[in-house]
Amino acid sequence: MVRIIHNLGGLKSLTRPLHLAMGVFDGIHIGHQAVIRSVVDSASEDGGVAGVLTFDPHPIRILAPELAPQRILASLNHKKELLDDLGVDLMVVVDFTEEFANCEASEFLNELLGTTAHLKTLAIGEDWKFGRQRKGNIDLLRNFGKEHGVGIQATGAVMIDGERVSSTRIRQAIRDGNMDAARAMLGREYTVLGTVVQGRQLGRTIGFPTANLRVHNEQLPTDGVWAVEAT
């Protein structure tokens, strides 16, 4: 079961080596999975903790709200379920605010290091950027790792049909109703998390049981009739 902490200070209680993947990880697609599995594998080798550090809300909602997608691929609770399936032990959720967005990348890394003496690995996608003006990159991380004895793992982009797999590309595929393409990039069937709510009970009039689902701000396919499985 994935344990959630909502600030870096929660890492102070750790007593085992921490192997931490960092990123937004919207949807946990096959590119994200490659990054996350690298820390799960490292943790299994030394009995450490496999962690994922992510952000809420999605950073683009703060940095460029006019460009933010109306819906995401996985809410925070949904992301937790997907990470649990990958063998992750810990999810660190950083509150992404304007103040945090102005934090220098090096300042953030030093704060992270200051919360735990057990940080052993940091893993990212090789093109991921973080910190003020996106100055945090793999080169900065490698220098940080050399200085502080932290292993740095960078995973290359995963390509399908000559294009990089991305959350943006998956959202578009779902909007277009191309669920086969979405499935290929996610490495699983697309799922949404929601709450069953009271409806108009029209299903009773046609002899079919139905359920009304209030989806947690997650991307839905184009209007139509879809075969689904409820769990």
List the helices and strands and how they pair.
Blueprint: E1 3-5, E2 18-22, H1 30-46, E3 49-56, H2 60-63, H3 76-85, E4 90-95, H4 98-101, H5 105-115, E5 119-125, H6 138-148, E6 151-155, E7 159-160, E8 163-164, H7 167-175, H8 179-186, E9 194-197, H9 203-206, E10 212-215
Parallel strand pairs: 1-4, 2-3, 2-5, 3-4, 5-6
Antiparallel strand pairs: 7-8, 9-10
Helix pairs in contact: 7-8
Task: Give a verbal description of the structure.
- α7 (167-175) packs antiparallel against α8.
- This protein has a domain at 3-160: 3-Layer(aba) Sandwich (Rossmann fold), CATH 3.40.50.620.
- The strands form 3 sheets. It has a 6-stranded parallel β-sheet, sandwiched between helices. The chain has a two-stranded antiparallel ribbon with strand order 7-8.
- The protein is built from 9 helices and 10 strands.
- The model has no long low-confidence stretch (mean pLDDT 92).
- With 231 residues, the chain is an alpha/beta fold.
- The two termini are 18 Å apart.
- The protein has helices at residues 30-46, 60-63, 76-85, 98-101, 105-115, 138-148, 167-175, 179-186, 203-206; strands at residues 3-5, 18-22, 49-56, 90-95, 119-125, 151-155, 159-160, 163-164, 194-197, 212-215.
